[in-house]
Amino acid sequence: MSVPPPLGRHRLFRRFILPYALLIVGTLAVSGWYFYTTAQEALDRELTKRLITVAQTVRSVMNPRYLMQMRPGSEGTTLYALILADLKRLQDASNASHIYLVDRQHRMLLDATEQTPIGHEYLFLKLDLAELDEVWQGRSMASLLYQGQNGRYYKSGYAPMLDRDGTIVAVVGVEAGADFFDVLTATKRQVALIVIVSVLILLPIGLWLSRSIIRPLSALVSAIDRVGKGEASPKVQIPTQDEIGYLGRRFNEMVDALAEKDRLLTRLYEQERERADRHRGYSDFLLRSMTTGVIGMDTVGRITRCNPAALDILDLPADWSADDAPPVPVGHGHPILDLLRTTLTDDGAHRRQEFWLRTESGHHKWVGVHTAPLHDQDGCLVGASALITDLTAVRKLQEEVRRKDRLAAIGQLSAGIAHEIRNPLGAIEGFSELLARKIHDHGTRQLLGEIVHEVKHLNHIVTNFLAFAREPQLNYEPTDISALIDNTLTLLLSTHPQPVTLASRLPPGLPLVPVDPNEFRRALVNILINALQAMPDGGVLQVDATVADDWLTVTVRDNGPGIPDAVKDRIFNPFFTTKDEGTGLGLAIAHKIVDGHRGVIEVDSAPGTGTAFTIRLPLERTHDEAYPHR
What is the assigned CATH class of domain 290-390? Predict the structure, then answer.
């Protein structure tokens, strides 16, 4: 026979013997408690009735007219002796421990024990102020039980004393010992003893009965527990022929059947797990290898899957996992999640949209999102998926192509016009200078000087416009970029009216870069002028240059007010400017020069954080670019 677990661990034993013992103990305890409280309440009511009756008897015997004549010092009078004798006879007849009469201020009028003189306040009455208030309203009352200094319990009864007019002039107090309380205490001990003896007798009997039933059941439970822990075919031996023995035999038959089914299921499970692992590994490999982002959502709106491409597009951490992430990892009201929820709620309709997306790191990306419903083998909707494509580079390329086409058309149209304007401007300037030499009037000569100044300014604008409209003819030369930047900064800062702190980081040993030095200097000058104009009261100008991965990177950063987001995409357009006296051609010419070098110019700015222009030029040139005249 299998060895059962220790007795203290038998849940069945606890459920059997403990309720049995608690039922007996509880029944005896409740019965004793009910007897004790019922007897106490009955005796307390009887004592209350007796005390109030005695107080009312004293009230009927005492003459209030004589009583009210008692004054401090009346203890030696004949009237006091007569009234006190009557009061003592009543106290002895009623077996009361104390009878007294007090006025409304709790001052003693008559004390049968003669312990409190007439006119002195009886302080003990402050314990029964609530009951005394009822008595002074004409009702007889009794106090609660209280314990005296000798350890005995007492109770007081009170009755109002009325004069001939029905006015309450005094209160009669009767105090007696509650001797029944000692009897009840002894009875309580006897009941407790009966309960203890009953438990000691009945517990062994219950223990013997419970063991005869629980031992075979414990063996069966132990065998079932071993089955749950995976032991192979545990058997139980119960020799009895009753219902428990039948359960043991049926259990052994069930264990044999389960062992056979377990072997079959184990073999099938291993086969299915190998196939599922192959499919899961292939699916995971596909998701990890895709350059398109994939996000999965279940029917309650929780993200269930997110491949590395999606994490990269959304700028989420590479170790982010949908298993331990919050339900909405990219924020409430996210447009991709809104599309997924729409797909779930609109009968599984497909959605395709393109929009600007602000990622978790604050970058803006132009993305294309295609959502589709997910169904199980029974056709039930189990979620939705989103395919995310980063189209930022494509959109920028499209915008750049449109911009170049637009600028090319403007350049072809405006080049001839600019030439036609430039010739008359030269004539106007020359005639104005000749006329100024022949006129001696100072005011007229000053006006002609203003005309010449404005014509030169207009001619400067036309010259810049021609430089923008004409395709740059670049002559590449190996150029020391550090020296070119230093010379340009020295020239510009020497003529700048406000003090500017220069923070230039040009590492030594930069290689010679194949650029057109004149055109590159013009682009750099336009960008530096734009930075200096952004700091009219002075500031910090930072210029950095690095060479890495076959690219030259030059960054010009100022700490000016920054460029608003609304105009950031238009700053390289010709004639667009936010300055009062700007022509809007400086940054456009710089962009065209950098583009002619097959480079890239970018701007990073936000209001209040300054502006940074970054120029990236390739170090490697084709043979035709490096030697255009061969």
Answer: alpha beta
